[in-house]
Write a structure and sequence with these properties.
The complex is a heterodimer of chains A (248) and B (176). Chain A contains 11 helices and 7 strands. A 3-stranded mixed beta sheet of chain A has the order 6-5-7. In chain A, strands 1-2 form a two-stranded antiparallel ribbon. A two-stranded antiparallel ribbon of chain A has the order 3-4. Chain A has 248 residues and is mostly helical. The mean pLDDT of chain A is 93. Chain B has a single domain, classed as Cytochrome Bc1 Complex, Chain D, domain 2. Chain B is built from 6 helices and no strands. The longest helix of chain B has 11 residues. The chains are: A mainly alpha (248), B mainly alpha (176). Chains A and B meet through helix 8, helix 9 and strand 3 of A and loops of B.
């Protein structure tokens, strides 16, 4: 009796425990991610570092405030994004914060969300928090947005009429043809995908998934995707940040 | 939905989809005697498209072929591994040795013709949600009216045509 109870509760823990996609990678893909010279994501980290040091239209660069290599940035704080933006009274992603900073403090023209430059900067900044544990707040004024993200995650859409949850909650670790379904964690983002051979932002990845469901999809940076990123990132609270990760 | 200018949604998007809970409940209520008669052929017809044929469920089976088509088992076998068509192999094991790495999401289909009747197989392809409202399996001949947020290219269309459904049924009943 006790053994059964223990077993049941253990499997329950197994179900809710976050798991990095790293766990389902092949040996070669893991080696690729772990080797800074083999991992193509580090080229984007370097590009991001260049942008970080480059002066904006008013002569300042990110580095002017945050240190030449971002050493003034707090890794623990990076791991808490998406956060609640008190001023705007809504959640803001790490990339959203970078966009705001670039516009307001450097006087730059707006960058494209998930565009090359923004992704490079986000990859560089999040890489500074590599190894730090994801720590997204889900209570207080941000709670309604987490709920919206969860509702999106669980809503059927598209001609395939599936929700994110169908694959990434109910069939985790199961094979869809040759591919193993992951838990849909975001701790490795922006992440190098072997499938398209580039570093992808979370919102671009959402769009790719929705396209497979033959669903309409939004623009990167849309409120729906910010909420979805918020919820999905919070599902991975406690996982170590792996940016730039290598995934399929 | 037809009034949308492109496939990208705007701010109105999330209010449109229902979350899983109510959808499951609604399907439970509708399930046993669910009929598509009220939304019959002609609803989703356009010039270049074949009409949507109605179907009815009785005892968890659809005994009449969709659109009165006659299936071809050889064509069905091809469809079952074709990526942009049936693609059964993505989730189910099939006795097709040249199709490697079958998925393991759904039950293996070896012997399905022994376990289920033709009508039961047809219902499970047409709309598996009639059997299990929470299923991941897409309804391959569900009324397109029930689908939310569909990409423009696929709007108003079923996943497979009536003929393709019957071809798959004809193939699967041979798996004894």
């Amino acid at each position: 009796m006790l053994a059964t109870t223990a077993l049941v509760s253990l499997s329950w823990v197994h179900a809710i425990e976050p798991k990095s996609g790293y766990q389902w990678l092949s040996e070669e893909a893991r080696e690729m991610q772990d080797d800074e010279f083999a991992n193509p994501g580090y080229l984007v980290v370097d590009t991001g570092r260049d942008y970080f040091k480059k002066a904006g239209d008013n002569g300042k660069s990110c580095a002017s405030c945050h240190g030449n290599d971002g050493e003034e940035l707090n890794a623990k704080s990076i791991a808490m994004f998406p956060k609640f933006d008190e001023q705007a009274q809504r959640p803001i992603t790490l990339q959203g914060r970078i966009h705001a900073c670039s516009r307001e403090h450097l006087g730059n023209a707006p960058m494209k969300y998930d565009g090359k430059k923004a992704i490079a900067l986000e990859t560089f900044v999040r890489n500074l928090a590599k190894g730090e544990r994801v720590n997204v707040n889900t209570v207080g004024p941000i709670a309604p947005f987490v709920r919206k993200g969860k509702a999106y995650f669980e809503t059927r859409r598209g001609q395939m009429d599936m929700a994110c949850a169908h694959c990434h909650v109910y069939y985790v670790g199961v094979r869809l043809r040759a591919q193993i379904l992951s838990k849909g964690q975001l701790n490795g983002f922006p992440t190098f995908r072997l499938a398209n051979q580039r570093v992808n932002g979370t919102h671009s990845r959402f769009r790719q998934c929705e396209n497979l469901l033959r669903s309409r999809y939004g623009k990167a940076g849309a409120d729906e995707y910010v909420n979805l990123e918020l919820y999905m990132m919070s599902r991975g609270n406690g996982l170590k940040i792996e940016t730039p990760a290598v995934r399929y | 939905m037809t009034g949308q200018p492109d496939q990208e949604w705007g701010a109105e998007c999330t209010s449109r989809g229902a979350s899983l809970g109510p959808a499951i409940l609604a399907l439970f209520l509708l399930s046993p005697s669910f009929s598509t008669r009220a939304l019959a052929a002609g609803d989703s017809v356009s010039a270049d498209m074949e009409p949507y044929y109605e179907w009815t469920v009785k005892n968890l089976a659809i005994t009449t072929p969709i659109g009165g088509r006659r299936g071809n088992a050889a064509r069905g076998r091809l469809l079952s591994t074709e990526r942009k068509k049936g693609n059964c192999i993505a989730c189910h094991a099939l006795p097709i040795p040249e199709a490697e790495f079958p998925g393991e999401i759904g039950p293996p289909l070896m012997g399905v013709g022994k376990r289920l009747s033709e009508g039961e197989i047809r219902l499970r392809i047409v709309d598996a949600k009639q059997v299990n409202p929470a299923t991941i399996m897409p309804g391959y001949y569900r009324n397109p009216k029930y689908l939310k947020n569909v990409k423009k290219k696929f709007r108003g269309k079923t996943l497979l045509t009536a003929q393709e459904i019957e071809d798959l049924v004809a193939y699967l009943v041979t798996l004894k």
